[in-house]
Amino acid sequence: MWVYILIAIIILVIVAAAVLLYLRSVKTQMIDTQYSRLHEVNQLPFKLDLVKLKNYNLHGEAKELYDKWQDEWNETLNTHSTHATNALEQSKTNVEQFKFAKSTKNNELAGENIEIIKNKYDELTEEVAGFTKAVEEGKHQNIESERLYREAKRDVLANGHKFGDAKKPLEEVIKAYEPEVARYEKMVNDGNYLRANEFIFNTYNELLNLKDSMDEIPKLIKEVQKELPQQFQELRYGCRDLRAKGYDLDHIKVENRLSTLKSNLNRVEPLVAKLELEEADSILESIHDELDDMYELVEHEVNAKNKFDGGKDVITDELFNAKALNYTLRTEIDYIKDQYHIDESDVQKVMNYENEIENLISIYSGMIEETEKNTTRYSAIVDNIDYLKNNAHTIHEEQNSIQEHLVSLREDDAEARENLRYVNDRKEKVYRELMASNLVTLPEQFIVMKHEIEVNIKEIENYFSRRPLNVEYVKAKVNDTVLMMNKFEQEAYAVMRDSELTELMIQYGNRFRSTDADLNAHLNEAERLFKENRYKRALDVAKDAVESVEPGSAAKIEKQYDNN
After folding, report:
1. Listed residue (152, 280, 298) closest to 228, CA to CA
2. Where does the chain cross the membrane (predicted)?
């Protein structure tokens, strides 16, 4: 037994040794990888990036940046490269001693130092690239600044007339930029690239703004000297023409406002001459706003007159028709109120409409009187156009509805009388057919239904003689009687159909009675039910009997009956 235990122990030792040797191999490979990374970061070409700076003037700011970047790189590389090397050596010793946890920790520490070197390289190269890019942009802006300066100087000399009184201030401003342009070169020669870039950036933007101002000044002068005075004149003469056509424009106060605008306009040219263009633009903007407001008010007056002219004929017709229809309604109500019951609310509406129409006519007359004056402020009366239209239309619709109701009273009266006569005739016809049918006796239900219909007819006939007649009530009673008549007729014809079909079924089945005892018994039962006035049940029994001896014969008999 102990032999097996010994063998197991030996196997375990061998496996453990193999695992340890494998782990040591893996850890050794990891250390070699870190050595390779360390070698790579030690070879990073940051000095080549610094060499690029020697193309610039290494004085002042440029020299300070060069020294700063070089010192930072050397310090980072020396310090963290040493830390990484020491950590890798220690890790290697740990592996040889099978201290894998400590080896991993030292290996990770080496990696952190290598990463610091790599990050510092990325940071510094980015700073160097940013510096060179900024220098190149500064050179470009300097070239553009010189071009803008020359073009501005040439434009003032060649086209000074278009700048008016602003020519001399512009020449002084442009002249002031002459030494400013040269200052950039001095800063660059001194190596102060950062200050040079900031300076040329500001100078370039100032020259761009100067160019925009020089483009704007002739437009401002043209607007002040020609365009706005012309608009003032057009508005003044336009308003005079409108006054001559009868427009009241006093509320717009055109002359007073134009006088104020002219005074404000006189302030603009001196501001342009002093190159105070923002304030000049602000005044011109307020002038345009004021002009737009006056034009809008004038346009509102013109539109108001057009609306009045377009609506007055329509309103005249609607008010005339409304008044005529109101008179017709009042006359008709007086004529028929003794014959028919008229809802008091409709009578009151017609009376109220008479007053409303007179009120609308009064408003409309006032509008017409206003337009017949020498001048009219149409915006003050145009709102009444919609008021008159809407109210006249509403009255027209309501009065039409009442008129249709009055007309319908006679029509409904005549229709109710006609329907009552028709019900009476139908009732007698159906009753005669019941009496002439093959019914053993007349079922009592038909006698009762006939009596109820006759009572209703008598009541309605008596109501027709009353004055004033409530047509709605009579119409409802007649409709109820029509429904009763329909029920009477439907049930009567249903009973007559059942009784006649029962006879036909029995007659058809008689040919089989002598040979079919069961059929004979069923037909006897049908005859018994027929004599007891149970026609529906008698028909069902007779149909079943006939179907039992000759399937389909009952349906054939029923179809022939319905087609006759």
Report:
1. 280
2. 6-23
A 10 A CB-CB count for 519 gives: 21
The pLDDT assigned to 490 comes to 93
Take residue 464 and report the two structure tokens written for it. Answer: 């027709």
Torsion of CA 413, 415, 421, 427, to 10 degrees: -120
Closest CA to 425 of 501, 507, 482, 365: 482
Confidence band of 74 (pLDDT split at 50, 70, 90): confident
Distances in whole angstroms, Cα of residue 336 to Cα of each of 63, 103, 109: 117, 121, 116
524-548 pLDDT, tens digit per residue, is 888 898 888 888 898 888 888 888 8
* pLDDT interval class at 483 (50, 70, 90): very high
| Other residues' Cβ atoms within 10 Å of the Cβ of residue 217 | 21
Q: 469 forms bridges with which residues in the sheet? A: 340
pLDDT at 94 over 70: no
* Tokens of residue 483, six digits: 């429904």
User: In 297-331, which positions are buried (b, 16+ CB within 10 angstroms) versus exposed (e)?
Assistant: ebeebeebbebbeebbeebeebbeebbebbeebee
Tell me the Cα Rg of the chain.
Answer: 58
Contacts 24+ apart (CB under 8 A), 482-490: 482/419, 482/423, 484/449, 484/452, 484/453, 484/456, 485/423, 485/426, 485/427, 485/453, 487/449, 488/427, 488/430, 488/446, 488/449, 488/450, 488/453, 489/426, 489/430
Average pLDDT, the chain: 80
CA distances from 49 to 79, 196, 345 (A): 21, 22, 103
Give CA separation, 160 vs 166, 222, 270, 281, in Å.
Answer: 9, 15, 17, 21
Burial class (CB in 10 A: 0-12, 13-18, 19+), 374: exposed
Q: Residue 376 pairs with which residues in a beta bridge?
A: 247
pLDDT band with cut points at 50, 70 and 90 for residue 66: low
Query: pTM to 2 decimals?
Result: 0.52
Determine the Cα angle at 43 with ends 41 and 46, to 5°.
Answer: 90
How far, rounded to the nearest angstrom, does the alpha carbon of residue 257 sit from its chain's CA centroid? 42
pLDDT tens digits, 13-44 = 565 454 455 455 555 666 667 667 767 767 77
CA 266 to chain centre: 48
β-pair partners for 340: 469
How many residues can be counted in the chain? Answer: 564
Contact between 179 and 121 (Cβ < 8 Å):
no
User: How high is the pLDDT of residue 88?
Assistant: 66
Most confident of 159-173, 329-343, 414-428: 414-428
